[in-house]
Design brief:
Largest sheet: 5 strands, mixed
Helix content: 25-40%
Strand content: 25-35%
Number of strands: 7
CATH architecture of the largest domain: Roll
Oligomer: single chain
CATH topology of the largest domain: Chitinase A, domain 3
Structural class: alpha/beta
Order of helices and strands: EHHEEEEHEE
Distance between the termini: 29 Å
Strand order of the largest sheet: 5-4-3-7-6
């Protein structure tokens, strides 16, 4: 199944992949240096470097597989900027509390809540997709049903 993503998002993920690949020689060197210290059974530096290598290689494989299955959506073919789509930054207001949030809607593989980037497949992200400024959406979240009003779309 293809995942949709803009060219800008694809390029960002490709950069992450390239960074991970550039780590390979450093990790390999750390493994070699740790190996020179003798007994590998009790060599914490060796085991830490091997674990880092395993995690790095797993992330590389994951990104390569995802990038192979991506379908790039041309910005010109996306709905107008007054509609929430991939790469839209949306400011929403919780109707019950008045609290406001701002999120960028991205593909699932780019989502990072700490960067305020939510997936278009998440409960909030999918409810916002294709909505317009002023629309209200209801979203089932862990604390219950929440109603949001779309305040702004960039």
């Amino acid at each position: 199944m293809s995942e949709f993503m803009t060219k800008e998002s694809y390029d960002r993920l490709k950069e992450k992949l390239d960074e991970l690949k550039k780590k390979r020689p450093r990790i390999s060197k750390a493994i070699g240096e740790a190996r020179e210290h003798g007994d590998l059974r009790e060599n914490s530096a060796y085991h830490a470097a091997r674990e880092e290598q395993g995690l790095n290689e797993a992330r590389i494989r994951e990104l390569e597989a995802k990038l192979e299955s991506v379908e790039i959506v041309e910005e010109s073919k996306m709905p107008k900027k007054d509609t929430v789509t991939l790469n839209s930054t949306v400011r929403i207001k919780a109707i019950d509390s008045g609290e406001e949030f701002e999120y960028k809607i991205v593909s699932d593989m780019e989502a990072d809540i700490f960067q305020k980037m939510i997936s278009n497949e998440s409960p909030v992200g999918s409810a916002l997709m294709y909505q317009q400024r002023g629309d209200e959406v209801e979203v089932q979240v862990p604390r219950g049903l929440v109603k949001y009003k779309i305040m702004d779309i960039k």
